[in-house]
Every structure is written in structure tokens, then in C-alpha cells.
Specification:
The complex is a heterodimer of chains A (114) and B (117).
Chain A: E1 4-7, E2 10-14, E3 19-25, E4 30-38, E5 44-51, E6 56-59, E7 62-67, E8 72-77, E9 86-94, E10 103-104, E11 108-113
Parallel strand pairs in A: 2-11
Antiparallel strand pairs in A: 1-3, 3-8, 4-5, 4-9, 6-7, 7-8, 9-10, 9-11
Chain B: E1 5-7, E2 10-13, E3 19-24, E4 31-37, E5 43-50, E6 53-56, E7 65-68, E8 75-79, E9 88-95, E10 107-108, E11 112-116
Parallel strand pairs in B: 2-11
Antiparallel strand pairs in B: 1-3, 3-8, 4-5, 4-9, 5-6, 7-8, 9-10, 9-11
């Protein structure tokens, strides 16, 4: 059974810092890994999707890497801003998953202080 | 191009009543997924549907819960005889093709917050 873990559970940093969020998964047989952002009381916004054959994806100040063999992904946020404050979720779709459902980690709650 | 639309945004029910949650996928998307987020917990998969078919309902409780995605109209998640433990945020996501091998991201709605009195 696929399990996804995110550390740290919460993170507070001053504005301007570069930071790394970690995600690990137990079964390396995945189609892809997706990073989401969730604001309080809101839905999920897709940030980056990394296919199993890829090593990383970049969008603006965000960079996500994937090491499938070790079951790890990182989300790097450069020059953090108060507007980045949110919960960040990673999720995978396993290849043995006929339902194509996402398995989520518990999330990292990020607070960027001005 | 409107995103995934869920309604209502907030729903309050008393124990024993029925709750109906609606989800209209993005235009052109024929795959719908329902997830539940219990307080202080992560999102858990409930059910995956294509038009008129339930593909995988392995995450949905066997009793009181049902889902449909008719040929016309939104997908419906129905909870009968609600209990306090059903209080949660219910999210719907859609994709144009099966989310796995197609590498298409799932797009999420803003969710329905269900509160049981």
C-alpha cells in the first residue's frame, strides 16, 4: 500500500529565505508526482507535475525534483514571500492503481513572515 | 474556461438527514474523482467515476455513501443518514483522461464543507 509522508509538518521562515519541502513515498512504481498548494478554506491549486521519467520541473520560483528510486521528491521555493504562506501537499499516482487516484501526504503548513 | 465547480460551498445537516454534494467537472473532462479531508487529516480518495460508470469506489464507505456521474449533469456524492463523523471537506477533481498513464494533472474544485449538527 502506497504511503506518502511530508516533513516538516509545519515551517515558519522570514521573508526572502529559500526553503525546501520534503516528500517521500514507499512504492516507487508511480506514474507521476504532483505538488499542490492549499489555502485555508480553499481547494487545491496544482503547482507542478513531474512524470516518472523526469527528474525535475520548474515554474517561476518553484522547482520540484523527483528521485523515484529512493522514493523522494523536494519542492524548492526561492526567495519566499508572505503570499507563499499556505499548506503544500504532494501526491502520487501509483502504476498498480487502476483507479488512477492520488495518494496524498499530510502536507507542510508554511508561514512566511514579512 | 471555468474550473471545477462544486456546490454548495457549505452545507449544514442534522444527524439522520441526507447530504447531496454536486460537482461539475471542467469542460471537456470526463473523469471525476471525489476526495474527503477530515479535520486535521490529509485528503483521502473516495471514488473515481467516468460518465455513467463507477470505476473505483474502494475508498468510499460501503454504507450510506453513494456516487454517480450521469450522462447529463453534474456528479453527485450522496450521504444518507449523516452522522457527526461525516463532517469534513469534500473535494472533487476532474481530468480529461485517466490521471495515471496520461500524465494529466487533476484539477480540483474549492470543496464542500459539510457540518453535521
Amino acid at each position: 500500500k502506497q504511503e506518502v509522508t511530508q516533513i516538516p509538518a509545519a515551517l515558519s521562515v522570514p521573508e526572502g529565505e529559500n526553503l525546501v519541502l520534503n516528500c517521500s513515498f514507499t512504492d516507487s512504481a508511480i506514474y507521476n508526482l504532483q505538488w499542490f498548494r492549499q489555502d485555508p478554506g480553499k481547494g487545491l491549486t496544482s503547482l507542478l507535475l513531474i512524470q516518472s521519467s523526469q527528474r525535475e520541473q520548474t515554474s517561476g520560483r518553484l522547482n520540484a525534483s523527483l528521485d523515484k528510486s529512493s522514493g523522494r521528491s523536494t519542492l524548492y521555493i526561492a526567495a519566499s514571500q508572505p503570499g507563499d504562506s499556505a499548506t503544500y501537499l504532494c501526491a502520487v499516482i501509483a502504476t498498480n492503481n487502476a483507479g488512477n487516484m492520488l495518494t496524498f501526504g499530510g502536507g507542510t503548513r508554511l508561514m512566511v513572515k514579512p | 474556461n471555468a474550473g471545477v465547480m462544486q456546490n454548495p460551498r457549505h452545507l449544514v445537516r442534522r444527524r439522520g438527514q441526507e447530504a447531496r454534494l454536486r460537482c461539475s467537472p471542467m469542460k471537456g473532462h470526463s473523469h471525476v474523482y471525489w476526495y474527503r479531508q477530515l479535520p486535521e487529516e490529509g485528503l483521502k480518495f473516495m471514488v473515481y467515476l467516468q460518465k455513467e460508470n463507477i470505476i473505483d469506489e474502494s475508498g468510499m464507505p460501503k454504507e450510506r455513501f453513494s456516487a454517480e456521474f450521469p450522462k447529463e449533469g453534474p456528479s453527485i456524492l450522496r450521504i444518507q443518514q449523516v452522522v457527526r463523523g461525516d463532517s469534513a471537506a469534500y473535494f472533487c477533481a476532474s481530468s480529461p483522461h485517466a490521471g495515471g498513464a496520461s500524465n494529466q494533472p487533476q484539477h480540483f474544485g474549492d470543496g464542500t464543507r459539510l457540518s453535521i449538527l
